[in-house]
Amino acid sequence: MKNLWNDQNAAALGDDLLAQRVYTSQLLGQDPKLVLHGGGNTSVKIREKTFFGEEEDILYVKGSGWDLETIAKEGFAPIRMDVLMKLAALEMLSDADMVAQMRAGMTNPAAPTGSVEAILHAALPFAFVDHTHANAILALTNNDHGEARVKEVYGDRVIVVPYIMPGFVLARKVYELIQSQDFSKIEGMVLMSHGIFSFANTAKESYDRMISLVAEAEAFISSKCAGYEFPKAEPADLNLVKLAQLRSEVSKTAKQAMIARFDGSSEAAGFAQLDKVADIAGRGPVTPDHVIRTKRVPLIFSNDDLDGAVDGYTGTYTNYFQRFSTPDIQMLDTAPRWAVWLENGTISFGRNVKDADIVGDIVKTTRETVQLGEQLGGWIPLTESPLFDIEYWELEQAKLKKAPARKPLEGKVALITGAAAGIGRACLQALHDAGAAVVGVDLNPEIEELQDDDRLGIVCNLTDDDATRGAVEATVKRFGGLDILVSNAGIFTAGAYVEKLDPANWDKSIAVNLTSHVRLLHHCVPYLRHGIDPTAIYIGSRNVNAPGAGAASYSCAKAGLTQLVRVAALELAAENIRVNVVHPDAVFDTKLWTPEVLARSAERYNMTVEEYKTRNLMKTEIKSADVGNMIATMAGTTFGKTTGAQIPVDGGNDRVI
């Protein structure tokens, strides 16, 4: 543990207690060994005036759905203390009534719903209360000797609470326990198999206590695990087609396209090569809070037993649901949310890259914590029944239901060539806007600017077969598969009549505008075969159907490309891979068409620039974004039953029509 408190930063907050609460909450949220993605909660008790000038005590508690690392003042729910303390004194309270009464007791109805542990925060007699799911605490508690270990580390300085379902039942238990406590000697509270609380009357002391208590647990673990090092290795049997196949089966089971993030780091591969990894990984999550993200256990598979592995997981999950469900509960999808790929590493799944990465962060914590717990005498998480209660708890499910509406291509993976500028960049942007994770490939180094979580840029000469294969494999390794190929890369070679055509000009056009596309498709098909509603879309040209004199090298290559599309459509239809081509014309908002070039071209036709740009039947300008929008539409369900088609994006051309 590192104490991140900064006196200068804290002093700038003055006496603003809520600002101090935000500050230390963010400090806790910055350390993934304490909390992850919405985990943990914090609060502060403030006496303030009502609208009518009367004073009352308010608990500002973290709002549901907010993340401690990025929380702001508006992320805290202001709830009247008298309401919370009346709730704490009740013998029984349903979840629905608890939430309703907490919201009724809020001083700001527009604020988020308060944490399900708000009553517990209110019951603790301190101004500041911090709660985390610290890895070290979970490693300490999740074994047969957990409570004894806690006592050995802290003595009587912490209250020890056996595992109890979060919410009112836990709050009520704590409320009863603390009535007889001498808090002059108490620094915190450990919830078995759940986490730890610290508290004090200043933000600094409560934060310091949290860091100190967790550091003590870390030191104890280090002493008991002296000499133990997390195993490290390299993936031993990495077959990316298997990864794509797994993603496909998980997506079908989840009934939605899923991103699969493979972690082949030395730590992940070392974990996947442990002799008993299937045993320790399959016992359960490190804290019940994780189960709504990860499900109770991962899928565990090898290359040799992938066939049927997801179906087997589904059967096991269905049995788990049937054993603990009641008639009023509807089963969630049965797809795994993470997997141990034996000998290779771990994989996290999500409806988009962000969700998959959240699971990935939890998996990293899980790998480390279960190994430490095993070294402490045996990793023993909660049993199935209490975990089921959390997974299907309406208050936890509410967190997931707040996810934004699904975009049409969310969970899909797209590879776009010639993506640094012009039509290619517009296609990439349109697909990304529609929710796809995108990989842009281009010879231009500017493509490397694409380095976001769900966007990747790769510099690649597509006439180099090895480089092309590498770009495709990088796409699959990054996002788990390939669903959409937009084959756009091309050049417009200098015009010349056939009699004067430079052979090198012809060869270059054929190499870039045709041969490279054949090679790219060759490397993509094994992954598209396992894609989700897979499609390959090619950028052709109006010249295919209405060629011009002096453009033989370009027009013939594009005509050959169109024929490739037709043949590929015939060959791949049986595997439900759609192959279509778009024929744009007169797209002038690209780097190729500078104002000077446009002016010269318009002059040749005795036109103004505006007339030249709209010289089609509809008298409309065709822009790169128009082509991009068409590609995004063709990649979706609208064109779900169309293959082998040639789609013009040209405003209407009398020679073509």
Distance between the termini: 71 Å
Task: Report the biggest beta sheet as strand number plus sense, adding barrel if it closes.
Answer: 7 strands, mixed
Helical segment count: 24
Give the helix proportion (percent range).
40-55%
Rg from C-alpha positions? 30 Å
Helix/strand-derived class?
Answer: alpha/beta
Total separate domains = 3
Strand order of the largest sheet: 3-2-1-4-7-6-5
CATH homolog superfamily of the largest domain: Class II aldolase/adducin N-terminal domain
Query: What is the overall silhouette?
Result: elongated
Report mean pLDDT, rounded to a whole number: 94
CATH architecture of the largest domain: 3-Layer(aba) Sandwich
User: Would you count the extended β strands for me?
Assistant: 18
Q: For the record, what CATH class of the largest domain applies? A: Alpha Beta
Per DSSP, what share of the residues sits in E-state strands of 2 or more residues?
5-15%
CATH topology type of the largest domain: L-fuculose-1-phosphate Aldolase
Low-confidence stretches: none
